[in-house]
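**Protein record**
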Amino acid sequence: MASTISNPKSLRPSSFTDGINSEKGIRSQTILPWDKFSNWLHSICVVTFDLELGQALEYSYPGHVKLTEKEKMNICYLSFPDSNSGCMGDTQFNFRIRQCQSRTQSHHRSQTYDKNSPNILQSDVAHFYGFVYFRQVKDKSSRRGYFQKSVVLLSRLPYITLFSNLVSIIAPEYFDNGEPTIEAACHDIDQWPAPVPGETLHLPIMGCVLQLRMPQRQDKPGSPAIKKPFEPTGSPMTVVPCVHDVETFRCLQPVLPHVQLLWELILTGEPLVVMAPSPSICSDTVHALVNMINPLRFMPDYRPYFTIHDSEFKEYTTRTQAPPSVVLGVTNPFFAKTLQHWPHVIRIGEVSSNGVYTQYKPFLSKDKSIIKRLVKGVQTKRPQEVQDAMLRRHLLELTQSFIIPLERYVASLMPLQRNISPWKHPPRLKPFEPEEFLKTLEHSGPQLTSGLKGDWVGLYRRFFRSANFEGWYRQRQQEVNHKLTALHLEALCNADLLEWSQDKQEVEVVDLVLKLREKMVNIGTDGLPVKPEVIQRLRTHIESIISTLPEDLQSVLKSH
């Protein structure tokens, strides 16, 4: 389906933004219009079908938020199902695209958020998630014979459940009442508090209230998101059980016998394509797959819905090199030929061809007991929520059995706290040596927590070559080094810096003051886990040392 992209209307009437101040009172000077909105969404887009232009961006809101031409093109093509899908009525799905330019606004906010959030919910600085509500109905007044339009929420946050609920509230209202609905929704979202991990939030949207609890890193996996709903006065309330809830059992039930094989493919970052009859099925399945290794974050690229018009189509379908480490969700039958050289294919949604097509031989023996329990649950009509919890628990325990030996080995690479000296640079984590790690498996490997037999060593070796290992180790390295830096700062606080400075030259003392100030800055910018009393004692040290210097130097240091 050929199409070009029309220019979006600029929809940012001054009466709307000015009205925020008159209706809600004067904002804090540190909070600009759309700051709160940008905590949650990048923008809301409306994509339509034009007979002459094809799929076109009708407008995006707020109007000052910019998208590149490539981003607009990808959003337009991904906001409509492929013509072969035959999606009549209302259809919801989601996609993920590369950002074409770096957007560094609110970096500090996102850094603080990411530090306290579970890995799978951290913000994505390189991609946008698009949450689509597509409507196609017969329309005699249209030359094409159909009304075809999508409302799309764009965000850097992977809140699958929350944003799917949100677009299902906004889009039907928009189809009934037009552009003022989008403006009103953006106005409401711009009043929302920030998504602070661990807090229960009440988010007003178009006459109702969404109640949800933001997960935090310290949460136990599988713990309920909201223990006791609180009914606010006024607007009717909808409880969102979890901001990011993937129905793993429902999505993977057609390929249930292969669930452990799929876990290995995802863990090791193998190229994988999901072929399904609709964008809803393929996007749900891709999310279920990349979440199989929770609490590990899936680090390779993944596209819940991918079309032949995507700007990365040639990159991902070339035969001149091995398929890239990516999970694709597709609906166009053309991909069956284009991707026939890919090593792993899942067909899902059509009973006659459901299955996993691969030559891959799993490293671990299959756990038949979980499959039997889940199949029995289907036969006895066990509630879907229970089936889902059982499968998630199985996958979580499998992943944890795999991670625990890695965590234990990294802990052994930590320098001893007694060796941290205030007079030397902060120590760093020792290098990860794969062969040394593998030697530890005989006595402290996964067999301590998992009954599965097989070639665990081979699985680890394959994992070490994946982006998932690189991402996990980079995060652990950063966390450990931040902890060591914090311990070094505590050692500095406990040292008698004043006595040290007494027999030093002025240039050495000034250098110490500047370095201490730099460390103070780094506490904030790097999000170091430093206690408030340590920060206060560092300030006191700095002031005491400056007071020993000549007055002219004191005035210079105090003025900077």
